[in-house]
Write a structure and sequence with these properties.
It holds the Pfam family Acyltransferase. 40% of the residues lie in helices and 15% in strands. The protein is of the alpha/beta class and 205 residues long. Strand 3, helix 3 and strand 4 form a beta-alpha-beta unit. It starts with a helix and ends in a 9-residue tail after the last helix.
């Protein structure tokens, strides 16, 4: 209930800031199973757009553990299905928690494989999680304002979803297997950016 309520609030705020969001490929989202929704991390508000754009599906999120030190923010994050992760020393729970959630609940997972807004390098975590949970990886991209200043100028936001990436053919998530998953994700991100706007170029702010 809290997640649904918060998403409704966020939807109104985003509409006030940027108007109606343009959605591309929403019909590509699985409707009968959980999945890992991935995107290159371009803004700190991008997770909000993804959660609203993929409605009515509900999601869990990874969040750095430092955010949970504030009791008010911690309450909001926990009730919005977020769980803490130590980015310096992730530990087994960084894999076990999302895998269990994907298997045992109706929550899908939002992840940013690069782990940071200023990196294009993909991490292996998303590949391992999707493989263990036996769910597809769904690529997505955000195109819109990249600075808070531009966010307040009611610039249009577009969220695009790609076809689910099937990794069932990859038998082992070793170095080669993870590299292949990363290649497929990067290829999907590039294709989506071209589909939405071939002239779009992301520059870290």
């Amino acid at each position: 209930m809290f997640f649904t309520f918060m998403r409704g609030v966020v939807r109104v705020v985003l509409f006030i800031l940027n108007g109606r969001m343009r959605l591309v490929g929403k019909d590509r989202l699985p409707t009968d199973k959980n999945y890992v929704l991935v995107a290159p991390h371009r803004t700190w508000w991008e997770p909000l757009h993804l959660a609203v754009a993929a409605s009515p599906k509900k999601f869990s999120f990874m969040a750095k553990k430092e955010l949970f030190k504030n009791p008010i923010l911690s309450f909001i994050l926990k009730h919005a299905n977020a769980f803490p992760v130590d980015r310096e020393k992730p530990g087994p729970s960084a894999i076990k928690t999302p895998v269990k959630t994907l298997k045992d609940t109706n929550l899908s997972l939002v992840m940013f494989p690069s782990g940071t807004r200023h990196s294009s390098d993909l991490k292996g975590g998303v590949a391992v999680i999707a493989k263990l949970a036996k769910v597809p990886i769904v690529p997505s991209v955000y195109q819109g304002p990249l600075t808070f200043k531009d966010l307040l100028k009611r610039k249009k936001v577009t969220i695009a979803f790609g076809d689910p990436i099937d990794i069932s053919d990859i038998k082992k998530m070793d170095k080669e297997g993870i590299a292949e998953v990363e290649r497929r994700m990067n290829e999907a991100f590039d294709a989506l950016d071209i589909e939405v706007d071939p002239s779009f170029k992301y520059e870290a702010k």
